[in-house]
Amino acid sequence: MSDPILQTIDGPIATVVLNNPDRMNALTLEAWAGLGRVMTALSENTELRCVLVRGAGGKAFCAGADIANFAANRADAAQARDYGAIVAETLKALAGCLHPTVAVIQGACTGGGLEIACCCDIRIANESSRFGVPINRLGHAFAYPEMAPVVAAVGRRMVLELLLEGRIMDSGEAARRGLVNRVVADKDLDAEAEATAKRIAEGAPLANRATKKFLNRLLDPTPLTRAELDEAYELCDSEDYAEGLRAFLAKEKPGFKGR
Predict the structure, then answer these.
(1) Where are the alpha helices (DSSP H) in 58-184?
(2) pTM score, two decimals?
(3) Which domains does the chain have, with CATH numbers?
């Protein structure tokens, strides 16, 4: 059996592929766990500057969990809790990735696939992409850890619409309503993903990581501490900041080192 989660690294850019194209890249429990392990390992690789997440084949980003396996590993509440704990850890690893993440969405992006996409920092979709969470047709609700990234991405009102109606949204509506950052022609998706990753990788990696950290912290209503407020200025002591100033004044392209 082929590996359900593939990864490649090309210089500062990693690509993670959900690899189950015969089933619309639906994730088995083992695949959920594998995705979490891969994302954790990539976060520990400080040479990286961007991570692309996409589905194998040309028909789907990810159709969610592989429901065909539920009778064996998610048949009752006890099994569902164990299953959900693994999903929650994987979503935490995705959302907390040290590096900027880009979901490259083609075709179906539903259920758990939408959760994965919403954990990514940027979502780029092709015109053929479709979105939804028809979970009410299975007879159970969105668990808190799975609902949280979708709420953070699109807000309570849209989550209620997606869950209560269980309808599938096309790419145009997804773009108009802020579910994705942009939509491109099917033929242009790969080029757009590559260009996006290149733009991110050319930026100062410490600044990009700090941006993610600070934005995630602002989701917590707890007041910021003095130390946290001061942290926002610490990068002004970095080599990258000095290089950025030098290059700007010299009208040159900066060569950031992540130091």
Answers:
(1) 70-73, 77-95, 112-119, 144-154, 156-165, 171-176
(2) 0.93
(3) 5-200 (3.90.226.10), 204-250 (1.10.12.10)
